[in-house]
Amino acid sequence: MRSDGPADSPLLRTEREFFAREQELHETKYLAGTNPRQQSGFGRDADDWERFRRAVVAPIDRDGSFLDVGCANGLLMESVAAWALEDGHRVEPFGLDISEKLAALARRRLPQWRDRVFVGNALFWEPSARFDFVRTELVYVPPSRRREYVERLLERFVAPGGRLLICSYGSSRPEGGRAEDLVDEIRGWGLPVQRVDDAVSPEHGFVITRVVSVTGGRKSDVHAATQAEVSMNHVGRSFRFDYGDFVVRVRYLSDSRLEWEQTKGPQAGSKGEEEYGHAAIRDEVVFFWWQEKDASVVTQVVDFAKGAVYTTWTSPDRKLSGFQGKVTRLE
Fold this sequence. Notes:
alpha+beta, Rossmann fold, Lipocalin, nine-stranded antiparallel beta sheet
């Protein structure tokens, strides 16, 4: 399939130019690479490849098929299969690229999967089967097509109950470009964000890789998932809970998992990761609960709109304490 889609595709001249330009740019850059990472658009060493790309497998929680849209030389396909296996999941990888030349490179590198590497523009290409996990990036299409692109992948590429993994990659250099947030944009389309996984620069603290997971299936299935998750729409965001005598930073990693760190107070530096439950009281007001590893129990009512939090803490020896504080969004 050509980079500009089929002859009857409704592409504007500027859109045809966009795809042709992107294809030429990536072919020129990737085919000049002297190692598999460079041929996949990554300029650092093998350790950093795993450090900054392994976040892609974090949402893979079972055996299944994996399609890499924009697979280039197939290195990410290969890596995801290996990393997922280390995590206990057997993944069958497939690849799709807009470039005949890059697909040919992937087939040469991975002859055992040569029949699994396809050529096409995902805005028009029709898969013969759906996949449990589909990875892509929004920069593959013109900005005006981003929502249409995501909805098409969810409708036609992702199996019911599967996940669309929407990635954004930033530079590891402070002066380079940053990974996109993605979360607000995707939620603005009425789609449920199931979880957010980041790879963060250990030197500088900014996000280098962001992976946003969206539930797949028919539009009716996606709408149902959106309605079910409307009570918790702060996944991927961090907040400062200021109780006066102590301050806690909380990040909601998914709709059932959070991490926290006390940044001020008698236990400053203590941190943890918890599985939590939640229920909507009304719009932007959420009731949370979880049990920590020391058997203490936390319950909270958070009013995100007014920036208020009401917390009770039951200690391991069943002593009850109550706290009221202010909530500020950090990112």
